[in-house]
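Many introductory courses stop at the sequence. We go one step further.
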Amino acid sequence: MKHLLTSACIGAVLLSAGASAAQTLQPSTTSGAYIPYRVVTQHVGLFGDRKVSYVATAGETLLNDPKGDPAATIFAFSYVDKNAKEARPVVFVFNGGPGSSSVWLHMGMLGPRQISFADAVHPPTTAPFKITDNRLSLLDVADLVFIDPVGTGYSRLLPGGKPEDFYGVTQDARAMSDFIQAWLTQNKRWNSPKFIMGESYGAVRAAVLANTLMGGPYSTGTLSAVSLNGVLILGPSFEPGSAVKGDDRAYLNNLPTMAATAWHHGKITREGRSPENVAAEASQFVADDYVRALYAGSALPKAERARIAERLSELTGLPGEAWLDNDLRISMGEFATALLTNESLQVGAYDGRYTLPINGGSGDPVADDPAMGQYTPGFVAAFNTYAQNELKIEPSDRYQAIVFADINSRWNWGAGPGTLVPRNYGVDLAAAMRRNPSMRVFIGAGYYDLVTTFGAAEHTVRHSGLAQDRVTLRTYASGHMPYLGDESAKLLAADVRAFIRSATPE
């Protein structure tokens, strides 16, 4: 297997535009040992209302197998204030998948530089893409470490590594825990306030990781005792897996998202209403009437069934007949196809504000999604440009944004590779909160996220044993990535800053 990155820049002095002189670093190793790649650059930026001089370190951390032999590398991007004190918070950031790199949070919300769309809902899909300074980055209040799990980004399995040691819920959490502890040691930051931030499957990773960092005889076999000040989760997916026939929770949790999306596209009355208003109306209907109707099942009287269908039509813009024909239960996939059928358009699953023609797709659930299909090219191109031109990374291998075949489809959920075991990981997060009475949780969701709905997030928060007084739940007028769109990005950044400050002791 070819070394991940070229060695041409090892020991070289680099000069990047807008950055001071930078030097790549290489650890001292014995002859023949694996040499982790690392490059360091120095920068200055304005974040929030503060000018920050920071050091960007992009490089590998070596992970060993149980025998102590090199098995894999985790590649991470660290942004650290040059004047950072030990009391400065550090946020460890990752996305989800499983099989996704951290490119989305890196270039979309938190990194010092970001992809910039003049209109987030109608982004350019071909180059050139625009990269700008990210004033909303959290570098004014915390240091940031973006982690690409094994097999994603530039992180790789080494020739002696085994996929089954890393591609699974438990295995992944252990690898991430090992990386975080190594980072704390290398950077002398064990006494810093610590946060982890995940997106989508990152909710599962964060919940399990919070416990893994603590350790114990039944988790890691050792007592790591790494406690977190806070856990931040965006586009939360706490309960992966399909519901069985007769489980109506998804239909109940989906309705407020359907209403908000119908409002956005003008399929229900907009005058004097906002997405918050219609979502609240739908939530009230769910609590008062819809849950009782679905609970009644086939015993629901015909007249009451007709009344419920009419109200569902008023909330979603879909005909009452469609609701009746589908036994008052319409899936998100059916909704995405049916809402704009008269315009021959399909709305995005990952963000219901996006649309593409309903015909002509190849059936790919991600590449053909109207949201993912349109905004991902800008993210990937912008990241590769930024990594090479500004961070001075010299790759000999491709940056893997998301890996479906080798990681996602082989993920071990607890019953062997590729077998999904439905489970509520909110319970794991509740256990972490019990162990650490000071740990707080922030959850941010999008009104237009048809994949991981804010209704499902609310349900998990209320039914998993989480300490309610330490959970902050916010919803934004955006989708699966709630930072897409200027207004939602500003609100989210302000809420996250406030959360980090509140969870950091004076």
